[in-house]
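Q: Sequence in, structure out?
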Amino acid sequence: MGNLPTGPFEWYFYLLGKVILFLLPGLIIIRLRRYKLSDFGITKERLGLSLLIGFGILIITTLTNAVIFIQNPEMTLAWTSQFVSPSDLVMIWGIPLFLDAFNEEFLFRGIFFLFAYKNTENLPLAYIVSMMVAFAWHPEFTLFRMVPVFVQGTLLCYLLYKSKNIHGAWISHGINRTSGSVVAQLLMGY
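A: Exactly. Output:
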């Protein structure tokens, strides 16, 4: 993110850039090819199941991230030191990254998992493609980053496979962006 404008709206520029580069072209292609949004998990059907599974996944991923943060206290301190107050955490970081979680879920699970699975009927292939794209999207190949990406990606693929609805994955992913750090800080007494 070093090339983005710095300051309190850095994460908003990050979100805007990803929406322009990835989400909008995807939506344009969907429109031009006359696909339905439900082909990508954007539907009201099975919403309750999606939210229920998503809540369970949120608990698992929050605890996974908290353990990773606790194992790297200097990273946790470096990450939290950029925020002056709790409102900074919400306004500067939480909101844009919660919205960005939809962008990622639409790509990783909506297109590269659910749509691929519907078109190939090959569950292992759809999972592998989704995970490869997710790992490529998160190039910080450290244990600190890859364990949570693997756990969350696997569980969210399962959610989409069972519910065919992206909403639970988006909400779980969006809240998980901050919940692991918050739980780690509470457990470490910061």
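The chain is about 80% helix and 0% strand.
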